[in-house]
Design brief:
Blueprint: E1 3-5, H1 15-30, E2 36-38, H2 56-59, H3 72-82, H4 85-97, H5 104-139
Parallel strand pairs: 1-2
Amino acid sequence: MRLALAQMNSVVGDLGGNRDGILELLAQSREPGADLVLFPELAVTGYPPEDLLLRPAFVRADDPKPAYPAPAEVRAAFLKLLDRPKVLFNVNIEETKRDVWPSRKETLQTTGIVFAFVAVMAIFLWLIDAGLLWAVRLLMGQSES
């Protein structure tokens, strides 16, 4: 089986233009003899189509003549999925509307951890510096009495 990977820049909401791009890439992949062509996620609608999927006119936008060389079952399954956009995509849109802020307790805990880390690192680096200074003086014969 020969596989082709299709890379394209879909435009969000441009079903006709994206369809034409897909058909062009399908035609190009036939020349080298590809048996299967893989397209990017949401190549038909463009990425991300979030708000457009909530519009019934966009969801039901369907060309009377099939533009994709796919079996009727695949086309029917795809249209069935598009009939349920609120179930599939409302969660993502609701997530973007929610603001989550840390509580005062979490803020104080994080601040305390950061200060403790800075203090430990300062002591660690001071010890490394003092150790290196002692080693250099020892090697140069300038040890303190």
